[in-house]
Amino acid sequence: MASQSSSPSTSVQKFEDADFLVRSWSDGSTFAVNRGKLEKGSHVFRDMFSCCDSGAENQQVLDLHEPESTLSALLRLLHSPPDPPVQFQREPQAEKFSTLLPVRYDASTAIPLPVLRVLLYLADKYALSDRGALESLHAHLLAHAPTDGLTVYGLALMLGDMPYVAAEASQYVLPLAWYSPEEAKVVPTVAAYHNVLQLQAYRVKALQDILLREELFPHGYGMCATHNTSAAAVWARTRLILARKIETNTDVAGEMESLVYIFQSCTTCCKAFNAAVDMLAYKCRRVPRRLDQLPDDGCPGFDE
């Protein structure tokens, strides 16, 4: 992977506090770097330098089989790791009661995915040891999960040890049937693909079960003496239709809430309807959304 040389390229790109030279074997591009930062930030560089003669370090050149652009990205990562993306400040209670998936970072402040893919590949290849730099890269990757869930899930498994990022990203993966074969290739193993498939099947079954059990007038509570039969029939008919259409990302309570216009003319029915939708949303929120929340037995089971 590396060799020692004493004839560096005439064009040198310099980093702060440079005391050593690194050169691209493929095109001769040379970088003046800080050897201490390379040793501190990467297990691979640490092992390389441990095999080298410690004398006359400033006169040495380390040749790496990387093109200039890749080598530049690696050295910048080791000298000045990127700050994490801007994180949204959210009230824990608001997220707890929301039916929407959490958005933790401002995606506009995240490193673009094509660049991030390269950085994560290099972090894995050169065994970066700086936890702060690694956590920052992981946060940048997670910032893309709400819009590129499957890609983030696949990269988290493919490029380093990121179980937390993979688990978080799994909740943003759209129904797998919606992806093309080319898009699905980002998932590195059949087992990893199957895990998401199992999570989504679990969610669909659990959401269907909750929807089909939830009544407009549970135990007769809030039942309207005038419209109880017709109102309950509308609720029952709509939930049967919706149950057949549920996907892993369906907002079940939100879909049922679209019936509100039918119940608005009756205060009693409207009150019962809102209570039923709220209870439906509460129960659906408790359905696992991430792989790390999936029960070991894979069987739906919810306390009433």
UniProtKB/TrEMBL annotation:
What name does this protein carry?
BTB domain-containing protein
Give the species: Mycena albidolilacea
